[in-house]
């Protein structure tokens, strides 16, 4: 889904946000990746939506590092990636898809993989970097105009390629090539193994959090699957769903032969919304769904339900907040403390962190946005230990535990 950013800060707004009595000491930016293709191929049979989209020109500009074992030297190999696909009625692989001959920018060399950052996503991520440059370089003078070193920066991404590439695009917008020193060393970009990553709520490797999230998901299904909101969604989109496992022959409505959309249907409502957002974010007519998918009331109902499914836990459970996003806030708080201590000891050889940029996901931003003033209350002392604790306790709180926002 594309976000239309607000206008740049006016001088009056800057004066209020950055009063002269205060000194800006550190900036940490959490950024969601740019526009991407759907993570799963949905609605191909019912709407003709192609599985692979021609919006990733990176495919014709691939570069790999190659080792010469005999000399120990490294060179780069430029190459083009072409996706081999299979037609529905054949097991013979074909290059590209039929869409490559029907779209203006169709090419065998720009086909996207599922969940891949598109050219538009790269452009919007770059625009974010340009916006950061205007604010922190041009307006506030917080960052230097030319990048001569990166030891004052902390660059990080989740292991997901679209998050890493979006962060790199934003860095490109913040410091374009003509603003980098000729002898600038390659910047260090930090990543973590999935088991240790805190840049997004870690459902895969935090057992307790996973159990709690599934419990909130079940509650959302009970709350919404038979609701008027879900009925409205099904009235418009059920006809595009795959066949139901069982059907009632007494029901005359043809759409009833298709699976009913729900919180845990296949595809689930969150997946339906993912396809809607991805297709709406890109302009190509060949990658659009039927107009019913873009109905404003349907979008509002879908977002309402999916937000409750995915984020009610952050509103209602202190433990959920701690396990879901507390580890990231602990990381950020520690960097703030390190920066303050570095400035307090100017004789130290340690360069205080001035600017952080992390490529992450919408679940990261939604979980952190509410906690600006309560970092200490949900920062875990040992995130990994707490993830393995309380596994025998009920996943839902006995009563809501407000976050204070």
Question: CATH-wise, what's the superfamily of the largest domain?
Answer: Phosphoglycerate mutase-like
* Helix share, percent: 25-40%
Q: How are the strands of the biggest sheet laid out side by side?
A: 1-8-6-7
Instruction: Encode the helix/strand succession as letters.
Output: HEHEEEEHEHEHHHHHEHHH
What is the terminal separation in angstroms? Answer: 26 Å
The stretches of 5 or more residues where confidence is low (pLDDT under 50) are 98-104, 344-348, 373-379
Which structural class matches the secondary elements?
alpha/beta
Give the count of helical stretches.
12
Radius of gyration: 24 Å
Tell me the number of structural domains: 2
- Mean of the pLDDT scores? 87
CATH T-level topology of the largest domain: Rossmann fold
Silhouette: globular
Family: Belongs to the histidine acid phosphatase family.
Enzyme class: hydrolase
Keywords: Hydrolase
Pfam families: His_Phos_2
Short structural description:
It is an enzyme of class 3 (hydrolase). This protein is of the alpha/beta class and 405 residues long.
Describe the model.
- The protein is an alpha/beta fold and 405 residues long.
- Helices cover 37% and strands 10% of the residues.
- The strands form 3 sheets. Strands 1-8-6-7 form a 4-stranded parallel β-sheet, with helices on both faces. Strands 2-3 form a two-stranded antiparallel ribbon. The chain has a two-stranded antiparallel sheet with strand order 4-5.
- Strand 4 and strand 5 form a beta hairpin.
- Keywords: Hydrolase.
- This is 3-phytase.
- InterPro entries: Acid_Pase_AS (IPR033379), His_Pase_clade-2 (IPR000560), His_PPase_superfam (IPR029033), Histidine_acid_phosphatase (IPR050645).
């Amino acid at each position: 889904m594309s976000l239309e950013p607000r206008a740049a800060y006016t001088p009056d707004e800057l004066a209020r946000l950055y009063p002269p009595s205060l000194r800006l000491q550190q900036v940490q930016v959490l950024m969601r990746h740019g526009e991407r293709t759907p993570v799963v191929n949905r609605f191909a049979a019912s709407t003709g939506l192609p599985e692979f989209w021609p919006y990733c020109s990176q495919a014709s500009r691939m570069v790999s590092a190659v080792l010469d074992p005999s000399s120990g030297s490294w060179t780069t190999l430029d190459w083009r990636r072409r996706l081999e696909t299979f037609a529905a009625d054949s097991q013979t692989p074909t290059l590209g898809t039929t869409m490559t001959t029907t779209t203006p920018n169709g090419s065998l060399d720009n086909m996207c993989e599922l969940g891949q950052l598109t050219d538009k996503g790269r452009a919007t991520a770059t625009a974010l970097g340009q916006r950061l440059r205007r604010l922190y370089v041009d307006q506030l003078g917080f960052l230097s105009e030319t990048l001569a070193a990166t030891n004052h920066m902390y660059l990080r991404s989740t292991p997901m390629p679209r998050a890493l590439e979006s962060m790199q695009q934003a860095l490109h917008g913040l410091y374009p090539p003509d603003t980098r020193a000729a002898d600038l060393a390659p910047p260090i970009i930090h990543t973590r193994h999935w088991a240790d990553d805190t840049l997004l709520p870690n459902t895969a490797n935090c057992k307790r959090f996973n159990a709690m999230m599934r419990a909130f998901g079940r509650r959302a299904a009970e709350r919404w699957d038979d609701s008027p909101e879900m009925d409205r969604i099904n009235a418009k989109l059920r006809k595009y769903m795959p066949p139901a496992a069982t059907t009632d022959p007494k029901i005359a409505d043809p759409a009833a032969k298709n699976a009913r959309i729900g919180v845990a249907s296949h595809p689930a409502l969150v997946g339906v919304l993912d396809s809607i957002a991805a297709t709406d974010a890109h302009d190509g007519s060949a990658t659009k769904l039927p107009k019913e998918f873009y109905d404003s009331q349907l979008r509002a109902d879908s977002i309402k339900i999916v937000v409750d499914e995915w984020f009610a836990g952050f509103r209602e459970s202190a433990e959920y907040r701690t396990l879901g996003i507390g580890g990231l806030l602990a990381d950020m708080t520690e960097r703030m403390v390190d920066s303050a201590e570095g400035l307090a000891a100017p004789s130290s050889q340690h360069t205080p962190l001035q600017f952080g940029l992390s490529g992450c996901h919408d679940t990261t931003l939604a979980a952190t946005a509410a906690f600006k003033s309560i970092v200490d209350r949900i920062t875990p002392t040992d995130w990994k230990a707490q993830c393995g604790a309380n596994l025998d306790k009920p996943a839902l709180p006995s009563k809501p535990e407000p976050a204070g926002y």
